[in-house]
Write a structure and sequence with these properties.
The protein has about 375 residues and is α+β, with helices and mostly antiparallel strands. The protein folds into 4 domains: about 1-105, no CATH class; about 110-180, SH3 Domains (SH3 type barrels, Roll); about 180-240, SH3 type barrels (Roll), CATH 2.30.30; about 250-375, endopeptidase domain like (from Nostoc punctiforme) (endopeptidase fold (from Nostoc punctiforme)). About 20% of the residues lie in helices and about 35% in strands. The protein is built from 8 helices and 23 strands. The chain has a 6-stranded antiparallel β-sheet with strand order 18-23-19-20-21-22. Strands 6-5-4-1-7 form a 5-stranded antiparallel β-sheet, with helices on one face. Residues about 1-85 have low confidence and may be disordered.
C-alpha cells in the first residue's frame, strides 16, 4: 500500500509539471461529448501509472503558457499544491486531454501585439525580404528567440518577427483565451446552411469542404453558426468543432497576377490595411467600424468611385460579370435565398476581403466561403 501511495504522489507531481498541446483550447471539451475524446499512448501511460502498473509519466514539455493536468483537476491555474486525490484513472485521463488542449495546438505560443500587421522576414534583420504578414492578434509557433528577433511559424509562413511586437508565455496565453474562436470545419463536399435547426427549413447557401464557420452555439444535432452577421444552422454530423486562433498571411496571398492595373492593386492593398478592424452595423468608418456595404463604399470612395449605401443597391451598379471572370477590385455579392445581403471585394487568388461579422470584423475569406450570388465590375481600365 505504501508503494502504491508513493507512486500516486510521484505521478501527481509529474502531472503538475507535465503539459501537452493539441489543436483545440480547453473550453471546447465543454462543447463535445466526453466520449469523443481519443486518448493517445501517453495518456494511457498516465492511466497505468495511477492504477499502479507503472511508476513514470511521460510528457512533452512546452512553454509556461500551458495549463497542467493537475490545474484542471484542482480547478485553478498555477496552483503549486500537491494533493493526494480520490480522482479515478478516468478523471486523470480526461484531465490529461484538457491539459493537451490548453494551448490551441502550439508548443510555444506567440501572439502578434500590433495595431495592424506584423512583418515576417526571411532573416532576422530590418532589411530582410518580406515573406508574409502576421495580422493583429494572430498566433504563431515560436521556434527560437534572441534579444531582438523571434523565429516563428504560422499557417504556411516561416520567418522572423521583431520581439518588440510579440507576446509570449503567460501574456500570450491570456490574450489567446480572449481571442480564440470556436469554429465548425465543413467535412462534406457541399454543406447545406439552413435558416432553422431542421431539415424542412430553407437552405440559405452551400459551403464547400474545408471552410470554417464561426460557432454561436451547439444545440443537439445542430450547430448554430454565424454566416457573416446572420445566425444560421448546420448539421453537427458534417462539421468538426474546435477552437482556433488566426494565423499568418503569405505574400502570395497579398500579391496579384500580371495584367492587373495599378488602381486595382492599390484598392485591394488599401482595403487590406483595415483587416482586423471592427464590424459595426450601419457603420462606414474603416477604422472605428463598418458593415459590409459601408466598408466597400468607403474603400472605393477614396478612389473616386461613388457607390450606394447598401449591398442590394451596390449590386445594381456597374456591369454584371461571371464570378469566374472576377479580377481584383471587382465586387462579389452573396444572398440569403435570392435576396442579396452581403458584399465583398475580390482581391485575387480566389479570395475576398470583407466586413464579415461583429466577432471577426474585417477579414479575408475564400470567395466560395459561401455560394457567390453575383459579381459586379465598377472599375473600367
Amino acid at each position: 500500500m505504501k508503494k502504491r501511495k508513493m507512486a500516486l504522489v510521484i505521478a501527481t507531481v509529474i502531472l503538475t509539471n507535465a503539459t501537452l498541446t493539441a489543436r483545440a483550447s480547453s473550453p471546447i471539451c465543454d462543447l463535445l461529448p466526453a466520449g469523443q475524446l481519443k486518448l493517445d499512448r501517453e495518456s494511457e501511460q498516465v492511466a497505468e501509472t495511477l492504477s499502479g502498473n507503472s511508476t513514470q509519466v511521460s510528457g512533452n514539455s512546452i512553454g509556461s503558457g500551458a495549463e497542467t493536468a493537475q490545474d484542471v483537476l484542482n480547478g485553478s491555474l498555477g496552483s503549486g499544491t500537491v494533493l493526494l486525490s480520490e480522482k479515478t484513472a478516468k478523471d486523470y485521463e480526461l484531465a490529461y486531454e484538457r491539459a493537451k488542449n490548453a494551448n490551441w495546438g502550439y508548443t510555444n505560443l506567440g501572439i502578434a501585439n500590433v495595431s495592424d500587421n506584423l512583418n515576417i522576414r526571411a532573416i532576422g534583420a530590418e532589411d530582410g525580404r518580406l515573406v508574409g504578414k502576421l495580422p493583429k492578434d494572430a498566433a504563431c509557433e515560436v521556434l527560437d528567440m534572441d534579444e531582438t528577433w523571434a523565429h516563428i511559424s504560422s499557417g504556411n509562413v516561416e520567418g522572423y518577427v521583431s520581439r518588440d511586437y510579440l507576446l509570449t508565455g503567460i501574456p500570450a496565453k491570456h490574450r489567446a483565451e480572449e481571442l480564440a474562436t470556436t469554429m465548425a470545419k465543413v467535412t462534406t463536399d457541399s454543406l447545406k446552411v439552413r435558416a432553422q435547426a431542421n431539415t424542412d427549413s430553407e437552405v440559405i447557401t452551400l459551403v464547400p469542404r474545408g471552410e470554417e464557420l464561426e460557432v454561436s452555439a451547439v444545440e443537439g444535432d445542430w450547430v448554430k453558426v454565424f454566416l457573416d452577421d446572420d445566425e444560421v444552422f448546420v448539421s453537427a454530423e458534417y462539421v468538426e468543432v474546435s477552437a482556433e486562433l488566426g494565423t499568418a498571411v503569405t505574400m502570395s496571398e497579398l500579391l496579384y497576377g500580371q495584367g492587373i492595373s495599378d488602381v486595382r492593386v492599390d484598392i485591394c492593398q488599401y482595403a487590406k490595411e483595415f483587416i482586423g478592424n471592427p464590424y459595426v452595423w450601419g457603420g462606414t468608418s474603416l477604422t472605428k467600424g463598418a458593415d459590409c456595404s459601408g466598408f466597400v463604399m468607403s474603400v472605393f470612395q477614396k478612389y473616386g468611385v461613388k457607390l450606394p449605401r447598401n449591398s442590394r443597391a451596390q449590386a445594381g451598379c456597374g456591369t454584371t460579370i461571371k464570378v469566374s471572370e472576377a479580377k481584383p477590385g471587382d465586387l462579389i455579392f452573396y444572398a440569403k435565398g435570392k435576396t442579396i445581403n452581403h458584399v465583398a471585394i475580390y482581391i485575387g487568388n480566389g479570395q475576398v476581403v470583407h466586413a464579415s461579422s461583429p466577432k471577426t470584423g474585417i477579414k479575408i475569406s475564400n470567395v466560395s466561403y459561401r455560394s457567390p450570388f453575383k459579381a459586379v465590375r465598377v472599375l473600367y481600365d
